[in-house]
Amino acid sequence: MNLTSTVTLNNQVKMPQLGFGVFRSAEGKETYQAVRWALEAGYRHIDTAMIYGNEESVGKAIHDSGIPRAEIFLTTKLWNDDMRKDRQEKAFQESLDRLQVDYVDLYLIHWPVAEKFHETWKIMEKIYRTGKARAIGVSNFQQHHLETILANAVIVPAVNQVELNPQLSQVPLFDFCTGKGILMEAWSPLGGGELVSDPRLAEIGAKYQKSAVQVILRWDLQRGIITIPKSVHKDRIINNTKIFDFELSAQDMAAINSLNQDKRTGADPDTFDF
User: Fold this and answer.
1) Which tens digit of pLDDT belongs to each residue from 122-138?
2) Poorest-pLDDT segment among 151-160, 191-200, 245-254
3) Which of 5, 60, 87, 201 is the most buried (most CB within 10 A)?
4) Over the range 155-177, which residues count as b (16 or more CB within 10 Å of their CB) and which as e?
5) Rounded Cα gap, residues 145 and 161, in angstroms
6) CB 117 within 8 Å of CB 82
């Protein structure tokens, strides 16, 4: 396993298991430079979203990198208000335009907007059939949201990207998704930064001469979870890739699993108000 190692989605598209996220990275120089550093470090999977406000910088960084588009796995997401206003297809094209690309590799419904996400999935299937999204999926969906979609879906979501970290291990949702052929992807894998200084993770890391952050990211990979740590610091971007030269023991995996508290740092998919 290495930085370009992939998982295979349910439509046979291959997706690098470790990616680079740009949530809360400012449009302009900050995001542009971070993505350039990530690509130089060897990442080939970039995750953004319309609501992040930085698609243009991501697109410019990818374009200026000189790396062939086909070698980069690019994800963006459909925002809630665009669903509410029935402008799903327009919003998708606007994302393509900002990113300066003809297609994305993965397009996600960002949140399960009540009364809208079910019909939106039909539009996502339509977008998929155009070939302008190589795969489609969802983000922040609970099991009952997925069951609603699956009741009438022609295409099973390829990915469910959710808040997931050692304090929110999402085991029941993971098991459900696995049973349906949906891969799980972790956003906020470091628990909003709270886990970076956790002494229990640091103690495990010391055995392998690794940081708590590297331990968490390795834990994700060994569970088969796609993960997208974010940073705007070059050294951290690089350090986050140094997780392929060790393997956590079964005992250490169990110890990390035991940290679960079902604790969210982000919004609850059943009660969000944006």
Assistant:
1) 999 999 999 999 999 99
2) 191-200
3) 201
4) bbbbbbbbbbbbbbbbeebbebb
5) 13
6) no
pLDDT computed for residue 233 by the predictor: 97
- Contact yes or no for 121/137 (Cβ under 8 A): no
At 193 the pLDDT is 86
Going by pLDDT thresholds of 50, 70 and 90, the confidence category of residue 192 is: confident
**How high does pLDDT run on average in the chain?**
98
Question: How many Å is the Cα radius of gyration of the chain?
Answer: 18
Q: From 259, 185, 253, 257, select the one nearest 224 (Cα to Cα).
A: 185
Cross-strand bridge partners of residue 107: 76, 136
Q: Which domains does the chain have, with CATH numbers?
A: 6-257 (3.20.20.100)
Catalytic residue among 32, 43, 52, 107: 52
Give the pLDDT mean for 5-25: 98
208 is catalytic: no
Residue 145 CB neighbour total at 10 angstroms = 20
